C-alpha cells in the first residue's frame, strides 16, 4: 500500500523538515496510520507521544497538528522508534512500533558505510552506496503496507493530561524565573534544575 498522502502534502512535509530522508518517511507513515485509525486531526483531539527524537517527529507535527508547544505532543526519551496516538474525545489510542524487518537487512551495511564516512575512510563508491541504500529504504518505507511497517498494539491507559499553566517561582540561586514543577529544594532554598545540579554534584 503506497502512502496515501498527496505528493503536494509530502513535499510540504519535506520542506518543513528541511530534507527528505528515511527517518522522515517513518514519521509520514506513522501519521498516516494515526489518521487512518483515529480520524482526521481536525475532527478529533489528537495527542501524540514519541519515544524517539529522530527526523520523523517533524512529519508527525506537520501532518497531525500535534506540537510540543501546544502540549499535545510529548517526547519520552526511550530511544525506540515507537509512537503512540490518542484521541482525548473517545479515549481510543494505540502504539506503533517500527517493525525491524521492514529494513530488509539494509541496516548493517548502511551502518558500516556511515561509520566509514564518519572516520573519513569512505571511498567515493562507499558514499554513492550510502545514497543508494538511503533511497532504497525511503522508497520501501513509503510503499510498504502499514500493517507490515508497524507492530500496532491498542492502548488501555488514559491519554496524557492536557497542558496546565503553573506558577512561576524565582530561583534563589540565579534569580531566574522557573516553572514550579521544575524546581528543586536544597538547603532550604528553591532552585532551578541547572543550579541544583551545580550545588548537588559530588565531584
User: Largest beta sheet, briefly?
Assistant: 5 strands, mixed
Task: Tell me, briefly, the overall form.
Answer: globular
Average pLDDT, to the nearest integer?
Answer: 91
Sequence of strands across the biggest β-sheet: 2-1-3-4-5
CATH architectural grouping of the largest domain: 2-Layer Sandwich
Q: Report the sheet-strand fraction.
A: 15-25%
Instruction: Write down the Rg.
Output: 21 Å
Portion of residues in helices? Answer: 40-55%
**N-end to C-end Cα span:** 56 Å
Q: Counting H and I runs of at least 4 residues, what is the number of helices?
A: 7
Strand tally is 9
CATH class membership of the largest domain: Alpha Beta
Overall number of structural domains: 2
Task: List unreliable stretches of 5+ residues.
Answer: none
What is the N-to-C succession of helices and strands?
Answer: HHEHEEEHHHEEEEEH
By oligomeric state, this entry counts as single chain
Keywords: Metal-binding, Zinc, Zinc-finger
Organism: Pseudodesulfovibrio sediminis
Domain Formylmethanofuran dehydrogenase subunit E: 16-150
Pfam families: FmdE, zf-dskA_traR
Amino acid at each position: 500500500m503506497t502512502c496515501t498522502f498527496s505528493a503536494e502534502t509530502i513535499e510540504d512535509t519535506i520542506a518543513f523538515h528541511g530534507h527528505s530522508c528515511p527517518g522522515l518517511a517513518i514519521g509520514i507513515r506513522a501519521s498516516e496510520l494515526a489518521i487512518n485509525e483515529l480520524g482526521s486531526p481536525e475532527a478529533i483531539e489528537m495527542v501524540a507521544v514519541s519515544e524517539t527524537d529522530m527526523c520523523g517527529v517533524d512529519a508527525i507535527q506537520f501532518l497531525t497538528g500535534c506540537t510540543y508547544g501546544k502540549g499535545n505532543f510529548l517526547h519520552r526519551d526511550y530511544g525506540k522508534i515507537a509512537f503512540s496516538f490518542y484521541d482525548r474525545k473517545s479515549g481510543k489510542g494505540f502504539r506503533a512500533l517500527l517493525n525491524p524487518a521492514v529494513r530488509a537487512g539494509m541496516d548493517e551495511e548502511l551502518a558500516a558505510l556511515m561509520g566509514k564516512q564518519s572516520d573519513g575512510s569512505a571511498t567515493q563508491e562507499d558514499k554513492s552506496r550510502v545514497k543508494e541504500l538511503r533511497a532504497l529504504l525511503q522508497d520501501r518505507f513509503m510503499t510498504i503496507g502499514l500493517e507490515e511497517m508497524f507492530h500496532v498494539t491498542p492502548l488501555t491507559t488514559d491519554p496524557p493530561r492536557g497542558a496546565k499553566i503553573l506558577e512561576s517561582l524565582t530561583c534563589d540561586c540565579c534569580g531566574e524565573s522557573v516553572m514550579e514543577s521544575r524546581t528543586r529544594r536544597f538547603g532550604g532554598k528553591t532552585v532551578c534544575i541547572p543550579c541544583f545540579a551545580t550545588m548537588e554534584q559530588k565531584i
